[in-house]
Amino acid sequence: MEKEKYLSDISEIKNLMDKSSRFISLSGLSGILAGVYSLIGAWLVYKIIYFDTTTLGNYSDLIVTETALIKLSMIASTVLLLSILTAIVLSIRKAKKSNDTLWNASSKRLVINFMIPLATGGFFILFLIEKEVLGLVAPLTLIFYGLACVNASKYTLGDVRYLGITMIFLGLLSTWFLGYGLLFWALGFGVCHILYGSIMYYKYDRK
User: Which long-range CB contacts under 8 A does 47-55 form with residues at least 24 apart?
Assistant: First the structure.
């Protein structure tokens, strides 16, 4: 009995330490919905690129008008905003359910470590857009987002690390197939978010 109590105490201490060092209120459902938003966004982008603009030659040779570029930026911003709001709302709900504090030391570390690679990549991509180097935009969004996930994963659920590694792999692969950036973007932000979000939901949210 004493041995079992000792093991139980150790397990409880480990769980408390885990909660204090990692943000565990991240909802898998938010990942699923972010993937759905991304797939809808990719479909809208596809329509704009291939029906509202002029194509020259083949898939990889595209002329994107300034009007279309504004539309693409609005779609990307909307998908990002919806994903962030969904993650915040569902994380708040999960935190309340488990009597945890949403904004604490671990969540602050998570946000900081996530935003450093993401903000760096965001500014770099904006510079590329200004220089009209559009072919690298999709690969770099995947790569920098993947780096952000890997960098922040030690402060949240471990599955985020594998999501990040997958994103980096897809981004690097996308640089080899530059003309198919939208497809890789949909696979990464759409399919992978749904896949890993589902895994996280069934592992953590249904308890």
Answer: 48/72, 48/75, 49/182
Domain containing 170: what range? 28-205
Q: How many domains does the chain have?
A: 1
Residue ranges for the chain with pLDDT beneath 70: 1-25, 51-66, 206-207
Is 0.85 topped by the overall pTM? no
As a whole number of angstroms, the distance between CA 191 and CA 72 comes to: 20
Kindly provide the b/e burial profile for residues 105-130, where b requires at least 16 CB atoms within 10 angstroms of the residue's own CB: ebbebbeebbeebbeebbeebeeeee
Distance, CA of 84 to CA of 114 (rounded, Å):
13
In a domain, 5, yes or no: no
- What's the confidence (pLDDT) of residue 38? 93
Tokens in use for 126? Answer: 């904006």
- C-beta of residue 98 within 8 angstroms of C-beta of residue 25: yes
